[in-house]
Amino acid sequence: MSFVSPRLPCLLLAALLPAFAAMATPDRNVIPVQAAGVSPLPSGPAVPQWRQLSPAQKRERRMQYAAWRAMGEGERQRVRTAAARFQALPADRQQSLREQFNAQDQAFRDGWRLGPLLGEHFSRLQGMFGFVPAEQREATLAVLRQLNPAQVSQLTLVAQRTPPQERDAVRTEFLAVAPAQRDAWLARQVGH
Protein backbone atom coordinates (compact mmCIF):
# COMPACT_ATOMS: atom_id res chain seq x y z
CA MET A 1 0.00 0.00 0.00
CA SER A 2 1.32 3.42 -0.80
CA PHE A 3 0.57 5.76 2.07
CA VAL A 4 -0.97 8.93 0.70
CA SER A 5 -2.05 10.91 3.75
CA PRO A 6 -2.62 10.37 7.49
CA ARG A 7 -6.37 10.58 6.83
CA LEU A 8 -6.31 7.86 4.17
CA PRO A 9 -7.15 4.90 6.48
CA CYS A 10 -10.23 6.68 7.76
CA LEU A 11 -11.24 7.70 4.25
CA LEU A 12 -10.57 4.22 2.89
CA LEU A 13 -12.77 2.87 5.63
CA ALA A 14 -15.46 5.25 4.52
CA ALA A 15 -14.98 4.11 0.93
CA LEU A 16 -15.48 0.48 1.94
CA LEU A 17 -18.11 0.79 4.62
CA PRO A 18 -20.58 3.57 3.83
CA ALA A 19 -23.30 0.97 3.60
CA PHE A 20 -22.80 0.07 7.26
CA ALA A 21 -24.23 3.33 8.52
CA ALA A 22 -27.38 2.70 6.54
CA MET A 23 -27.53 -0.83 7.91
CA ALA A 24 -27.89 0.26 11.51
CA THR A 25 -31.63 -0.10 11.05
CA PRO A 26 -31.90 -1.98 7.77
CA ASP A 27 -34.96 -1.83 5.57
CA ARG A 28 -35.26 -5.34 4.22
CA ASN A 29 -36.72 -4.05 0.96
CA VAL A 30 -34.16 -1.41 0.09
CA ILE A 31 -30.51 -1.95 -0.74
CA PRO A 32 -28.10 0.13 1.37
CA VAL A 33 -25.70 2.71 -0.04
CA GLN A 34 -23.10 1.26 -2.40
CA ALA A 35 -19.91 -0.14 -0.90
CA ALA A 36 -16.58 -0.03 -2.72
CA GLY A 37 -16.11 -2.84 -5.18
CA VAL A 38 -19.84 -3.32 -5.71
CA SER A 39 -21.38 -2.15 -8.96
CA PRO A 40 -23.23 1.16 -8.64
CA LEU A 41 -26.91 0.91 -7.82
CA PRO A 42 -29.56 3.42 -8.81
CA SER A 43 -30.93 5.59 -6.04
CA GLY A 44 -34.38 6.80 -5.15
CA PRO A 45 -37.52 4.94 -6.20
CA ALA A 46 -35.59 2.79 -8.70
CA VAL A 47 -33.53 1.03 -6.00
CA PRO A 48 -33.81 -2.71 -6.70
CA GLN A 49 -35.43 -5.09 -4.24
CA TRP A 50 -33.47 -7.83 -2.45
CA ARG A 51 -34.89 -10.49 -4.73
CA GLN A 52 -33.49 -8.66 -7.76
CA LEU A 53 -29.90 -8.94 -6.55
CA SER A 54 -27.57 -11.58 -7.92
CA PRO A 55 -26.35 -14.27 -5.50
CA ALA A 56 -22.95 -12.54 -5.37
CA GLN A 57 -24.56 -9.20 -4.48
CA LYS A 58 -26.65 -10.87 -1.78
CA ARG A 59 -23.54 -12.55 -0.37
CA GLU A 60 -21.77 -9.19 -0.32
CA ARG A 61 -24.67 -7.51 1.47
CA ARG A 62 -24.82 -10.31 4.05
CA MET A 63 -21.08 -10.03 4.70
CA GLN A 64 -21.39 -6.26 5.10
CA TYR A 65 -24.25 -6.61 7.53
CA ALA A 66 -22.51 -9.35 9.55
CA ALA A 67 -19.39 -7.18 9.77
CA TRP A 68 -21.47 -4.21 10.90
CA ARG A 69 -23.25 -6.25 13.57
CA ALA A 70 -19.94 -7.64 14.85
CA MET A 71 -18.56 -4.17 15.53
CA GLY A 72 -19.02 -2.52 18.89
CA GLU A 73 -20.98 0.72 19.08
CA GLY A 74 -17.78 2.77 19.35
CA GLU A 75 -16.49 1.26 16.12
CA ARG A 76 -19.85 1.82 14.43
CA GLN A 77 -19.74 5.48 15.44
CA ARG A 78 -16.26 5.81 13.94
CA VAL A 79 -17.61 4.31 10.70
CA ARG A 80 -20.58 6.71 10.69
CA THR A 81 -18.21 9.64 11.22
CA ALA A 82 -15.89 8.45 8.46
CA ALA A 83 -18.84 7.90 6.12
CA ALA A 84 -20.10 11.44 6.78
CA ARG A 85 -16.62 12.86 6.11
CA PHE A 86 -16.38 10.79 2.95
CA GLN A 87 -19.81 11.93 1.74
CA ALA A 88 -18.78 15.55 2.31
CA LEU A 89 -15.88 15.20 -0.14
CA PRO A 90 -16.27 16.25 -3.76
CA ALA A 91 -17.43 13.42 -6.03
CA ASP A 92 -14.11 13.26 -7.88
CA ARG A 93 -12.19 12.85 -4.59
CA GLN A 94 -14.62 10.12 -3.49
CA GLN A 95 -14.06 8.32 -6.78
CA SER A 96 -10.29 8.68 -6.46
CA LEU A 97 -10.36 7.19 -2.96
CA ARG A 98 -12.59 4.32 -4.12
CA GLU A 99 -10.15 3.60 -6.95
CA GLN A 100 -7.17 3.69 -4.55
CA PHE A 101 -8.97 1.34 -2.20
CA ASN A 102 -10.07 -1.06 -4.94
CA ALA A 103 -6.49 -1.19 -6.25
CA GLN A 104 -5.38 -2.69 -2.92
CA ASP A 105 -5.01 -6.40 -2.28
CA GLN A 106 -8.30 -8.18 -1.43
CA ALA A 107 -6.95 -9.23 1.98
CA PHE A 108 -6.23 -5.58 2.78
CA ARG A 109 -9.75 -4.57 1.75
CA ASP A 110 -11.31 -7.41 3.71
CA GLY A 111 -9.32 -6.40 6.80
CA TRP A 112 -11.36 -3.20 6.99
CA ARG A 113 -14.50 -5.28 7.57
CA LEU A 114 -13.12 -5.87 11.07
CA GLY A 115 -13.73 -2.24 11.92
CA PRO A 116 -11.57 0.88 12.04
CA LEU A 117 -9.03 -0.22 14.66
CA LEU A 118 -8.28 -3.69 13.34
CA GLY A 119 -8.75 -2.60 9.74
CA GLU A 120 -6.09 0.06 10.05
CA HIS A 121 -3.59 -2.48 11.38
CA PHE A 122 -4.72 -5.62 9.57
CA SER A 123 -2.05 -5.54 6.87
CA ARG A 124 0.55 -5.90 9.66
CA LEU A 125 -1.51 -8.46 11.60
CA GLN A 126 -2.41 -10.54 8.57
CA GLY A 127 0.63 -12.83 8.70
CA MET A 128 -0.36 -14.09 12.13
CA PHE A 129 -4.15 -13.63 12.09
CA GLY A 130 -5.15 -13.68 8.43
CA PHE A 131 -5.22 -17.46 8.09
CA VAL A 132 -6.70 -18.78 11.30
CA PRO A 133 -8.21 -22.29 11.20
CA ALA A 134 -12.00 -22.14 10.82
CA GLU A 135 -12.66 -23.57 14.29
CA GLN A 136 -10.59 -20.76 15.88
CA ARG A 137 -11.92 -17.76 13.91
CA GLU A 138 -14.76 -16.66 16.19
CA ALA A 139 -12.67 -16.95 19.35
CA THR A 140 -9.76 -15.15 17.67
CA LEU A 141 -11.97 -12.29 16.50
CA ALA A 142 -13.52 -12.01 19.96
CA VAL A 143 -10.05 -11.58 21.51
CA LEU A 144 -8.89 -9.13 18.85
CA ARG A 145 -12.00 -7.01 19.33
CA GLN A 146 -11.29 -6.73 23.06
CA LEU A 147 -7.94 -5.05 22.45
CA ASN A 148 -7.35 -1.34 22.90
CA PRO A 149 -5.32 0.71 20.39
CA ALA A 150 -2.05 0.37 22.35
CA GLN A 151 -2.46 -3.41 22.54
CA VAL A 152 -3.20 -3.65 18.82
CA SER A 153 -0.07 -1.60 18.07
CA GLN A 154 2.05 -3.90 20.21
CA LEU A 155 0.46 -6.97 18.68
CA THR A 156 1.36 -5.71 15.20
CA LEU A 157 5.00 -5.62 16.30
CA VAL A 158 4.74 -9.17 17.64
CA ALA A 159 3.12 -10.33 14.40
CA GLN A 160 5.76 -8.66 12.24
CA ARG A 161 8.70 -9.97 14.31
CA THR A 162 7.45 -13.55 14.50
CA PRO A 163 8.97 -15.86 11.89
CA PRO A 164 6.37 -17.63 9.73
CA GLN A 165 7.16 -21.05 11.18
CA GLU A 166 6.41 -19.76 14.71
CA ARG A 167 3.20 -17.79 14.00
CA ASP A 168 0.74 -20.55 14.86
CA ALA A 169 2.42 -21.22 18.21
CA VAL A 170 2.69 -17.52 19.13
CA ARG A 171 -0.93 -16.89 18.10
CA THR A 172 -2.11 -19.85 20.18
CA GLU A 173 -0.07 -18.61 23.16
CA PHE A 174 -1.48 -15.08 22.78
CA LEU A 175 -5.06 -16.32 22.56
CA ALA A 176 -4.58 -18.34 25.76
CA VAL A 177 -3.43 -15.29 27.76
CA ALA A 178 -6.02 -14.02 30.24
CA PRO A 179 -7.25 -10.49 29.47
CA ALA A 180 -5.67 -9.13 32.67
CA GLN A 181 -2.29 -10.52 31.58
CA ARG A 182 -2.28 -9.33 27.95
CA ASP A 183 -0.39 -6.10 28.59
CA ALA A 184 2.40 -7.96 30.39
CA TRP A 185 2.54 -10.65 27.69
CA LEU A 186 2.68 -8.07 24.92
CA ALA A 187 5.36 -6.07 26.74
CA ARG A 188 7.51 -9.21 27.11
CA GLN A 189 7.08 -10.11 23.46
CA VAL A 190 7.89 -6.60 22.26
CA GLY A 191 10.84 -6.33 24.64
CA HIS A 192 9.71 -3.50 26.92
Structure description:
This is DUF3106 domain-containing protein. Keywords: Signal. Residues 1-21 form the signal peptide. InterPro entries: DUF3106. The chain has two domains: 1-105, no CATH class; 115-192, no CATH class. It contains eleven helices and no strands. The protein has helices at 8-16, 18-22, 55-70, 73-88, 91-102, 106-111, 116-129, 137-146, 149-161, 167-176, 182-190. Helix 1 (8-16) packs across helix 5.
Features:
192 residues; mainly alpha; 2 domains; 11 helices; disordered N terminus
Q: In whole angstroms, how far apart are the ends?
A: 29 Å
Query: In which range does the helix fraction lie?
Result: 55-70%
> How much of the polypeptide forms β-strand, as a percent range?
under 5%
Number of DSSP-assigned strands: 0
Low-confidence stretches: 1-8, 14-46
Number of folding domains?
2
State the major sheet.
none
Structural classification: mainly alpha
Mean pLDDT: 78
Order of helices and strands: HHHHHHHHHHH
Radius of gyration: 18 Å
**Tertiary shape:** globular
Total helical segments: 11
Protein name: DUF3106 domain-containing protein
Keywords: Signal
Pfam family, one: DUF3106
InterPro entries: DUF3106
In short:
Pfam families: DUF3106. This protein is mostly helical. Helices cover 62% and strands 0% of the residues.
